[in-house]
Amino acid sequence: MLAPTHEEEEAISTTSTPSSPPDLRAQKLKRVLQEPIVDMAQLRKLSWQGIPPELRANTWRLLLDYLPANADRRNQVLDRKREEYSATIPRYFDVDDTHRTNEEQTIYKQIQLDVPRTLPTMTLFQNQDVQQALARVLYIWGIRHPASGYVQGINDLATPFIILFLQENMNKEIRQIDPSTIPSEVLTRVEADTYWCLTKLLDGIQDNYTFAQPGIQRMMFKLSELVKRIDAPLYDHLKQQEVDFAHFSFTWMNCLLLRAFPMHLSTRIWDTYLAEVEPFSILHVYVCAAFLCHFSAELRSKDFQDMLMFLNNPPTQSWNLQQIDVLLSQAYLWKSLYENSPKHLNHR
């Protein structure tokens, strides 16, 4: 990896700010959430550094603009949005196949294939009721967003919301929840909240899923240019071994790195993404660059096949939250340096 230039060293001192201790930050976050009208700028600032699990569900709802900042309006909005979603089920999902268009039947069949493959190692997602809830969310979203329709990978993006809202409602860690004991009214609430939060998330990245997925193509190209600037030896080795960035980074972009990390680490990354004022897809590319360059030395010792195996199943099972914080800090630094200075990306 290239040594920092003087400009980069200067940026480190101006862009890196010490984070509050987790307990103090949690106290501050609780105070912000308890205000009659939440200060969204302060909420974003505190959430960027990570949200305590017990505060994550409502904080994500607020960051995604699913719930209003005004506390007096929240219950009313929540009830209305859940009822609105429930009304879409008989209209769009619970219909005979003969009433679906050919395109709708294609979407329906693809979802029925993808849902059982979603987090196959997690018992929760092998439960029939949970699978049916996920299928409804994906199908209704696809039908109501015809510009893209349902695309494989969106099923992954729904899973953090299902897990988060189930933990909130059941007051248990997800692996302590027996899916057969989930009350139907709880799953109904979780399904509706998942639909609306997924919708808000996808609103900012819908061109990732339109024809030819131009958003993902742009992000993969940008990642390639970043690595060329930041870590020329790694970039050259990838080219020498004929490893195209699409071979591994397509999934990173399509699923927002969900398949690259254990879920508790992915949700920590999403805390930061949802706290971003700018579209989080900008920071995401820099996170992918930091992630790839983290393994630079190891990757440069591998050939084509070994690199692909490594990058499509990166060794992150033993990673911890501190490593994620370092990854995000590195990504933030590079974003501060390069995002508004494209000339840097053309320099070798």
Helix count, DSSP H or I runs of 4 or more residues = 17
Q: Which outline best applies?
A: globular
Fourth-tier CATH superfamily name of the largest domain: Ypt/Rab-GAP domain of gyp1p, domain 3
Arithmetic mean of pLDDT: 92
Q: Which CATH architecture of the largest domain?
A: Orthogonal Bundle
In what range is the share of β-strand residues? under 5%
Oligomer: single chain
Helix % is 55-70%
Helix and strand pattern: HHHHHHHHHHHHHHHHH
Number of strands: 0
The residue ranges in which pLDDT falls below 50 over 5 or more consecutive positions are 2-18
Counting helices, strands and paired strands, the structural category is: mainly alpha
- The CATH top-level class label of the largest domain: Mainly Alpha
How is this structure best described in words?
- With 348 residues, the protein is mostly helical.
- The chain has two domains: 1-55 and 212-348, Orthogonal Bundle (Cyclin A, domain 1); 65-203, no CATH class.
- Helices cover 65% and strands 0% of the residues.
- The protein is built from 17 helices and no strands.
- The protein has helices at 6-15, 22-34, 40-48, 53-63, 71-93, 102-114, 128-144, 154-170, 184-203, 214-230, 232-240, 246-254, 263-275, 280-294, 296-299, 304-312, 321-338.
- α2 (22-34) packs antiparallel against α3, α5 (71-93) packs across α7 (128-144) and α7 (128-144) runs parallel beside α9.
- The longest helix has 23 residues, at 71-93.
- The radius of gyration is 21 Å and the shape is globular.
